[in-house]
Amino acid sequence: MNIDTLGATNLSPPRINEPAQQVERRRQDSREQSPSASEGNKIPPEELLNQIKAVTEDGLYSVRFERDQATAELIVKIVDSVTDEVIRQIPPEELLNLTKHLMELSGNLINTVS
């Protein structure tokens, strides 16, 4: 009987040092520390500001608040301070594009009906 095994060289190591994974780990740590946020309760503004401050405290990340001109929505971006790379954006770019297209379609439907 011949049994083939997978060697450790075939597996890629987990990418725990990438910025997105670091942000995700911090988010999980904050959820473990504050169980009320995971229960669906609304987070008080002071706690939210403390969480933002914890992410940006070491200087690796900065938080940018922008307003999308087409949809007038608030955009929150977590940016790597060194490379100026956007780590996470809320709402994502795809959702903003979808919102823009839906607004265009609704405008066309209303204009043709009325």
Structure at a glance:
This protein is α+β, with helices and mostly antiparallel strands and 114 residues long. The protein is 46% helix and 17% strand.
Question: How would you characterize this protein structure?
Answer:
This protein has helices at residues 19-33, 35-38, 45-56, 93-113, and strands at 61-67, 74-80, 86-90. The protein is an alpha+beta fold and 114 residues long. β1 and β2 form a beta hairpin. The termini are far apart. The relative contact order is 0.09. The mean pLDDT is 75.
Index terms:
114 residues; three-stranded antiparallel β-sheet; alpha+beta; 17% strand; single chain
> What's the story with the biggest beta sheet?
3 strands, antiparallel
| Unreliable parts | none
Q: How much beta, percentage-wise?
A: 15-25%
Helix content: 40-55%
What structural class is derived from the secondary structure elements? alpha+beta
Widest sheet, order of strands = 1-2-3
Distance between the termini: 77 Å
Radius of gyration: 21 Å
Q: How many individual helices? A: 4
Q: What sequence of helices (H) and strands (E) makes up the elements?
A: HHHEEEH
- Overall geometric form: elongated
How many runs of DSSP E, i.e. beta strands? 3
- What is the average of the pLDDT values? 75
List the helices and strands and how they pair.
Blueprint (H helix, E strand, L loop, with lengths): L18 H15 L1 H4 L6 H12 L4 E7 L6 E7 L5 E5 L2 H21 L1
Antiparallel strand pairs: 1-2, 2-3
